[in-house]
Every structure is written in C-alpha cells, then in structure tokens.
Design brief:
Elements (H helix, E strand, L loop, with lengths): L1 H25 L12 E6 L9 H14 L1 E6 L7 H13 L4 E4 L4 H11 L5 E4 L8 E3 L3 H15 L4 E6 L5 H16 L3 E6 L7 H7 L6 E4 L2 H14 L5 E4 L3 H9 L4 E5 L1 H16 L11 E5 L6 H7 L5
Parallel strand pairs: 1-2, 1-3, 3-4, 4-5, 6-7, 6-8, 8-9, 9-10
Antiparallel strand pairs: 10-11
Length: about 325
C-alpha cells in the first residue's frame, strides 16, 4: 500500500512538471522571430502512417502559425525504410527546404549519408540523437526504458519477460530497449528479446505473444504498442503488456486493461518544440532544448485532468 502511494506521488510530481512544460509552451514567447518570408520546414517521419503523429502535428501546426513557418509532412514508403528517408531528405533539400525535422529510421545510416554529402540546410532530429543535427527533441530514452522496466517489476508478473523491438536501427528506441533489458536482468528476471516487423500479417507477432511461459511483454514505440495491443485483445490473451506513447486507441486499451502501463510524454509539446527549434536553426540561431519530461501512466489514471491536458491537447 505504501509502495503504491509513493508511486502515485511520483507520478503526480512528473505530471506537474510535464504540465508546467506544457503551460510554458502555450505562453507568449517573446524571443521568437516571425520572418517576413515563411520558413519552409520539411518533416520526415520514419513510418508510412502519419496518424500516430497526430498530436505531434497539432503542436507543429500551432508553432508554425505563431512563427510564420510552412510545414511539409512526409512519410516513408515502408516503416523504418532508411534508404527511402535519405532519398526524401535529398529531394527536400533540392526543392528548397530551409530546415529539416527528421525522426531517424536508421540513425547510423542517416549520419553516414550526412557526413558524406551534407545537406546545405540545418537539421533537427526527433526521438533519437543524430550526428550532424543541430538540435534534438526527445525524452531521456535510457531513463524511459529503465522506469518502464521498473513498472513491470513493481507489478511482479513473474520471471520471463519478452522485449519486442521493431526499430533496431533507431538510436532512441534501441536506448529504451537496452536500458530496460539491463534493469530487468539486474533484478534477476529472465529476458527474452525478439525482433518483429511493423508491416505484414502480424503472424510472427501473434505467435510470440502466445508463448505460454511469458509473464510480461514490453514494447518501446507507439506503432508496435498499438499493434501488440490489438492482437492481444483480439486473441483474448492475458499476458500483461507494457508500451510507449498514448494514441486515441492506446488510451482505450489502457482503460480496458489491455495495456497495463505506458511511458509517455506530451506529443504536442514535442511537436511545438521541434518547429520552434527548426525555425531558430533556419534563422541562424541555436537555442538549447531540454529533454521532454515523461511519465508512467496506467489505465486508472489516463483520464485524470493532468494527463488529459498532456496527452490529448485541444488547441484554439
């Protein structure tokens, strides 16, 4: 009882800190420059489906309106297609983008491409640090993986925990996975690691989730969290599932107990900060950006006011 009370207090503190960051974003920002000519910002995702980034886009749109920027949101032909992302990057530079915002699909490959050819315009990375980028907007990925693993351990599901990874070339996602693995192994848990895809029929993912000796499953990005939750619910599986990020679907699965807990942050704040930072880079400035605060949220907490403001922003 005391342990859960302490956890609740920690969650409240994190939510207040996150709310403070959100309020700061919504206040007038005196240093921001609105140029006479719009700053052209090309945003290159690492996925083929942009719906998972809807709250990020809300924050981006608000910042773009305030700062006089024009956004182009671009998706890949297939999720985590690093070569396609490099091709799109080069095309956007040729089309005259003033600055690029990139969620790296293949952090190493993208860094090598930038080192070999450069871009001719500044880059801001999201989710993962990127060599060659001027700024990064991301949570502390190592701390996120560690705290999500602690949530699993606190629930005491048993010794065998499956870690599912769909983005092994994403530095941010990999940092979450490795930090979670280290935390679990240090606690004496048996960890099983598997690579899965974000496309296809889902047969392999379904087979992995059905393993009879599992005590918990962890995934480390919103796309795979949604996919695993949908398969778990449709198959009637009971193994506790822990994920990352909260979408509209994710909130419903949390409420129904399909997902036991997630690590999340304000996507709206991330999108706003990304465009604000990108515009500053395009204008020859470089304002330091703090890491996005994150928190662990469970189903019974998802609709509390402080979480609603952070996870489901309403812009006016």
């Amino acid at each position: 009882m005391k342990h859960r009370r302490n956890t609740a207090i920690q969650l409240m503190i994190l939510a207040v800190l996150g709310g403070a960051a959100m309020i700061t974003l919504l206040l007038p920002r005196l240093p921001a420059k609105r140029s006479s000519a719009p700053v052209e910002v090309s945003v290159i995702l690492r996925e083929a489906d942009s719906s998972l980034w809807s709250n990020v886009r809300l924050g981006m749109d608000q910042a773009a309106g305030e700062l006089g920027a024009e956004l182009r949101l671009l998706t890949l032909a297939g999720a985590n297609d690093g070569e396609d992302q490099v091709d799109i990057l080069r095309r956007e530079v040729e089309l005259g983008a003033d600055v690029l915002v990139i969620i790296p699909a293949d952090s190493g490959g993208l860094a090598r491409a930038l080192a070999e050819r450069g871009t001719g315009c500044p880059i801001l990375s999201m989710e993962s640090p990127l060599e060659g980028a001027g700024l990064t907007v991301a949570p502390d990925n190592e701390a996120l993986g560690r705290e999500l693993a602690q949530a699993v351990l606190e629930d005491g599901p048993g010794p065998v925990i499956l870690l599912l990874d769909a983005s092994p070339n994403s530095a941010g996602v990999s940092a979450r996975v490795e930090s979670a693995r280290e935390t679990l192994e240090n606690a004496g848990a048996e960890v099983r690691y598997e690579l899965v895809g974000l496309s296809g029929t889902g047969d392999r993912l379904s087979a992995l989730l059905r393993q009879p000796d599992l005590s918990a499953v962890m995934v480390f990005e919103p796309a795979l969290t949604e996919r695993a939750a949908a398969l778990k619910e449709s198959s009637g599986l009971e193994t506790p599932l822990y994920g990352v990020g909260v979408t509209a679907n994710g909130a419903a699965w949390l409420e129904r107990g399909v997902i036991s807990a997630v690590a999340a942050w304000s996507d709206f704040a991330g999108g706003y900060l990304a465009v604000e930072g990108a515009v500053s880079l395009a204008q020859g400035e470089k304002r330091p950006l703090e890491q996005l605060p994150f928190f662990i949220v469970r189903g019974e907490e998802i609709y509390e006011p402080e979480y609603q403001k952070l996870l489901f922003p309403v812009t006016g």
